[in-house]
Amino acid sequence: MSPSMSIVRHAIRFAVFSIAATLLTSCGQHGMAPKLKVGDTVPASSNRVLKPGQDWREVTTMDTRVRLYRWRIADLVEQRKPFIVVFGTPQHCSMCVDQISRVAMTEEKYGERFAFVHVDGYKDDAIWTAWGVKGEPWTFVVDTRAKVRKIFPGQTEPSLLEDQIKVLLAEAA
Hints:
Elements: H1 3-26, H2 73-79, E1 83-87, H3 94-110, E2 115-119, H4 125-131, E3 138-142, E4 148-153, H5 158-172
Parallel strand pairs: 1-2
Antiparallel strand pairs: 1-3, 3-4
């Protein structure tokens, strides 16, 4: 192989590696832990909520309607209601769509007893900054004292979410 072909192959490998690294950090949490840790108090954030008659696309880039836009985090903190909040930008992140769907399925089962929130990076970027979220998706479980109880990076099995919900509901009883 000629030296010039070796240089071209090396350049192509480097380009592919660079593109892959960029994609992983833009739609994944690899090494990009949020600022908040388990035990921290969450910010009383004013995320977007869906108002009666409002088009759901004004609060999210999710293609499918889900019921994750009924609660403002600040109100949940004030009411001392436990909740799950998922950070993801579904318009460009298929892993986020999957995680939001998993949270939405869990909401269908527990939604009247527990609160569920989705914060879209394209709609509520200031909240991502306040929580120190980088990469996506991230799912936080928050207790009645507004303390982070569990943080799930990436996709999470609904059974793990349910386990956390059951613990917090039992504590609140």
